[in-house]
Amino acid sequence: MTKNQPSPQADPQANPQPFRRGEATLMTTIDEFSQVTRAMRKAGKPVCLVPTMGALHEGHLSLVKAAKTVPGAFVAVSIFVNPLQFAEGEDLDAYPRTLDADVEKLKAAGVDAVFAPSAREMYPNGPRTTIHPGPAGSILEGEHRPTHFAGMLTVVNKLFQISHCDHAFFGEKDYQQLVLVQQMVNDLNLELRVHGVPIVREGGGLALSSRNVYLSDEERELALTLSAALTAGSFVAEDGADAVLSTARAILDDAEGVEVDYLALRGTDLGEAPETGDARLLVAARVGSTRLIDNVGVPIGVGFKNLDPEQGAGGSDAAAPAAPDDAPQS
User: What is the C-alpha to C-alpha distance for residues 143 and 139, in angstroms, rounded to an integer?
Assistant: First the structure.
């Protein structure tokens, strides 16, 4: 498949399936999906959207589980490999596409609807109007992938409008994405709540990602260095920011075959890290030809052993991005 061809995963001209709640009914056109979600809202059912690019794993299913906790929720999952998020030379054509298997997983999870449009359906006139992510989108991932976040925010905004969603669920593995989506919701006065869901990891600590399928067995072992470095850095948080970074970097530097794009300690809003308080330690690196990202919450100057157990965990994967008190987030 070339970039100019519509994705084979969704045929907008296909006959629509009869809609049945809880059976992951597949929809490929905006009109069909929008009509159903609009009807659900009118019936008083909160629409909960889980945006994905498919190749679903347990991390995605944890978002579905979180969405299903909303009372009376109508849970919809979008599957769309968004070409606007991929720069020249990135893995758009090779990105795993497993629609049939994904729908079966979502059916087993009790999802109500699956929206899997083609690129032509989503961008019938091409990418004419896009959303600029602002300064927070030019650092970290934005420095290495300059067009990525504009493409991500554009498609997420479109999905919000198409789905009429009341709630949207995003994984914290893509932490900068989560912060920028929350920023867009706040800045554009969108009437929905953004929920961040903790990272799901394999037994050895590797964060689940659709790109993990690219890793050989040897590379998978090497990829564990990322989570090991983050964990080691977070456990010296009591000693301050310099100790966190130097500890994590030492582990990454010792791992031959891990090419680090960045290791950064930031505030939960991706601003400057505080001298004391919740922060986020983020890393991006290439293992072989596969680029991976990961992050962990860090209680700088406090340390995990000094956290109040009732306080929630600024130093865990459950830390949420900072936002105004009236922000529509979970």
Answer: 5
